[in-house]
């Protein structure tokens, strides 16, 4: 595979993508599935190459400009963004990337999801702010395709897949962020079958701008008389412009921009407070935002979660991509920055800092985090494919279970460790890393969002320990442990360091088993869940150790720098990272009550 | 002690300062020393109260403004800063805080160093950017007082202690950051006893501005024929304005601002690239920056390190103060932000998020980091006092040894963990924490600098393991272990959880002993130092465990929320934090060669 990467800023390593997609995940074999019959490694490579080129040409050049010149609201009330953002999205839509995994009937490329997501990683690494618009639009389109009517798909999905319309998700409200049960946005059905939506939505990424002919908001709201809590949430499609009789954007809907949020990073992505139905506009002469029910009433949260799982993998990959480019940039810097001498050499020429052991440690740590996270993210993306297109029903069920279990980790682990990678990238750059002339400080700021949105870090801990490991009577966790044991047993017979790592992974798996059983012993859910975050982080590191053993196995026998790099990163992970989990499992096993047995007045 | 804190933004906990200064460190007893004979707890309290008031009145209000409106260079070439910075510094100087620990003969308050530093923590918590100017000026004045001539002290130190002149440290150059041996700035002696200095200095905090009548640069440079490397470095005082015959700032010296650096945080502090002797100005009609030798030739680095140790404690306290205010702000937020319900309650009113165990974990973690770091920083500041004023020579020597050993930890531990505290403060705030409407994202950005300047994180690892634990034939480390054992033995006889924590601390101390011995076994300095950072972090956590045991001992028997808070933070530290060191010591004991046995081409 020949890749042309024209950007001066290294974004991802195409050799690593080849390794993961073809040598490890054997994505090529998916072409045997009917849905992908028209594809081949050649078409996959062409897509990935095109993504790399587009990222370099259209996304990299304005990454700093969009950071420096934040979107603002002009006197006219319109949101002004640097013009390159719209142009990049137009190019993305024009090249078909918004429709990558969608049906040919929707003019999609009908790519495997895993290939499509790998392609998007290029855009995320190049400019996460601009790519956010694309990813939300794609996720939005997926949801409508799954639950919308054929007419809704035609009217809304089709223009989203070209980028003419862009999409948002409207979940949070000022008083209901993590607690969706408490949303107060209301939707009242009208005689014509539409609804009128009233309420305020917060943190809406891409919530307002002038970069598309329409904005398709997917809004969680409650209908009068709906059941309390999450069971009474419905999902509505609320466009910025109501469609006219020709299906074209017509009257301005009653959706008003209240204000833009100004964030530490992700400056290029508008983030809005939106008022629905405050009477700012009067579509059809009446106040209230015109909305269309998606699916059935009171099914909104379940439907949204369909989208959320994929969105969470997308967030994990965004974090990963930011970490990845920071890693590559710090490798470049470490190779060229000359400073200091080897131990014991008081004189003589200074050496590139990549010779210093601690710089190497910081590079290895980054490598192990970002290459590990990318592998995990692509593995999960392939599970999305398997759920939809694997040959046997059992295989699909198996993929679904594993995907459910891994999703909180695929989101939260990169969100935590790719930020750490970006911090190390700053550290490798020294004072330059803290300066805005270099790129790494922006990556760090941009990336810090990822453990907050799409479910905070803590929520993924509760999801994993409170729900996922217990679902289907523990079948998902047993499946993961089986998969890990399968890897370990293959590695145990392998050359070099593999057997030792296999043994370490088995011990880690054993700890997951015993700790999970202990936590879910009789009558202590409160204690079990009190340290759900420690559980998430410990299991996350074990999963990444498994991912690294998989990569090391795949690399076994491979010669040359690339494979040596995989082996040394695996060595790093087993020596420096996996052992961190011991203290976490010990804490969990102790059923520690520190956070429970305290009074709030002690702070 | 009655403290009035008028700021809406909580900065530090005055009750905690009382606890640390009076209940733990018994600072009041220092008044028995001749130097502090005019002082009492009353004067100390007055100083601390005044600092809290000044911080609230003069430092807090422009913290965000100085972040938003960065210093810039006007068309006239002058640096423009928001005017409140100069006013705050003027107030600081006027109130005597720049002269806090200085001699009465210099119109100083002759305070114990520890009290003076505690007072400065208020300014650092309120506005670290503005306080940077003050701290550098004080450190500069200390150095001149130690090594300058009486005339230099009179001419330069006196106006710095009022804030009329401000000071800088000029060490780094574009090609010589961490590697000071490689500086190329030259100083050539003149017939009149002055020198002319030529060279470029980088990352100069407070390097140029219009906020003082003069700027006093302390510049490292080499004289012709000086020995190579660090042994040929001399120290020069190079003012922005040469003094005229009346001792007043006169001709502009040949020091030119090349450019301002734009950083991720610390926006309010100018950071400059300066050209010395490039002919931009011609003092006395000739190019070359007029400099005055400080101390003797070739002693520059040793002299600078005199200043660096205190500067490093100052950086540690700056990091701590940023962490501390972030902690208090997130406690306030967690008490008032209502979101979600207790485990198992599907309905009913939502509760403040401080009820959720994971939020409490994040608050406890912050509390343990910032209160622990503050305790360590003040302990080290008191050691500075003891070195200078303890009654017996043995006590002074002991303090000097312990201070030397603890300095790399007092700098690097807060720089690492107070950033983590700020990250947790963001996380407690959720989406709001990532938004610039709240303060915590700025703290996180401001704080990230602290593991880079005044010696990077890695350099402190090398300093600790490569130098400090071996100095005086290991006497410093033995002393630390003795001090830890003394604490453990007192705690072993204490009530409640103290004996268990004492045992844990003893095990930690044992690991320090065995691991240090193993690393410095015969013939493996390369291996020993390869993981110096892991050593720094592991020993740092052990030292903080000791600090927490000291605090818990001091709190033993105390009743009420404050003392309960100390106990639960100690409990948190021993349950969640100290166990992290196990994996680090294991790694060190394994003499791991991962970072040594690799080729740079594998990245």
From TrEMBL, chains A, B:
Q: Outline the extent of the Acyl-CoA oxidase/dehydrogenase middle domain.
A: 169-240
Query: Any idea which UniProt keywords this protein has?
Result: FAD, Flavoprotein, Oxidoreductase
Provide the Acyl-CoA dehydrogenase/oxidase C-terminal domain boundaries.
298-462
The protein's required cofactor(s) are namely: FAD
Ranges where the Acetyl-CoA dehydrogenase-like C-terminal domain occurs:
482-598
Alphabetized InterPro entries for the sequence: Acyl-CoA_dh-like_C_dom, Acyl-CoA_Oxase/DH_mid-dom, Acyl-CoA_Oxase/DH_mid-dom_sf, AcylCo_DH-like_C, AcylCo_DH/oxidase_C, AcylCoA_DH/ox_N_sf, AcylCoA_DH/oxidase_NM_dom_sf, Diverse_Acyl-CoA_DH
Q: Which domain of life is it from?
A: Bacteria
The UniProt entry's sequence similarity note says: Belongs to the acyl-CoA dehydrogenase family.
Name recorded for this polypeptide? Acyl-CoA dehydrogenase
Q: What lineage is on file? A: Bacteria, Bacillati, Actinomycetota, Actinomycetes, Pseudonocardiales
